[in-house]
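At your convenience, could you comment on the folded chain following this short note?
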Amino acid sequence: MNAIHRSLLTLAALFVGTIAPVGVHFKVEAQQGSAAAIDAALAGSHRSGANKARDRYRHPKETLAFFGLRPEMTVVEIWPGGGWYTEVLAPVLHERGKLYVAQYGSKPPFPYQQREMDTLAAKLRANPDLYRAVTPTALNFFTNELTIAPPGSVDLVLTFRNVHNWFEEGYGPPNAAQLAFKAMFTALKPGGMLGVVDHRWPDPATEDPGAKNGYISEKRVIELAEGAGFELAGRSDINRNLLDTHDYPEGVWTLPPDLALGERDRDKYLAIGESDRFTLKFVKPD
């Protein structure tokens, strides 16, 4: 091999060495950008001290990273309640993304739902720039408000501790859960993701069909999602709580933040913390 050949091979090796990592660097930078955006949202002054205190139980940074949240996404948050997660999602998405908050609809069946909607509406009014990516929609089974976003327009749908409600009396018809998963599937683009967090019942054979204790099994949720056309894409123990014994007088609401028993055994339940939760990720097939 002469000197010219050696020089050419050396240049080729250098060229390959500089090109090969580009995709890796781009991916790492994108991940760092998403993580930084979530960190900034979590640290924001718009969040109350009480809401920030719950981060230790809800692990929002790790949970949203597992679901693949990125600042340029179009996202739907199902039944956001008073907006605990909305306070995190909206700042991440407000520059380049879009957030639909699918609320309880025009005629929510329970008074607490209207109160939560009023709380979230007040947040949006108080800080319109922060929440400029937010568009309210609805998921109400009684009024047939089932279009949570334009069909096929969404990258990521998120539902936190809601699926068990769709089996409880008063929240909808017997097929409410099926209707919800169909609505989520319809909103997503092919390849889009669905993230589900809920209170875990550990044994599918003994769970309450009506979920009156607030718990639901992973098995039932996976069957629901697959019945709607989703494929299971991953599961995580980010939100597992091994101290939760799942056997309380007032169900999951015995634990914080509700503390349904008031001062009775309060320290005991505070020591357990918030509920044991599963974290599941599904994909809408291409």
Observations:
- The first strand starts at residue 74 and ends at 78.
- Strands lie at 74-78, 98-103, 134-138, 154-160, 188-199, 231-236, 277-283.
- Residues 1-28 have pLDDT under 50 and may be disordered.
- The two ends are 50 Å apart (CA to CA).
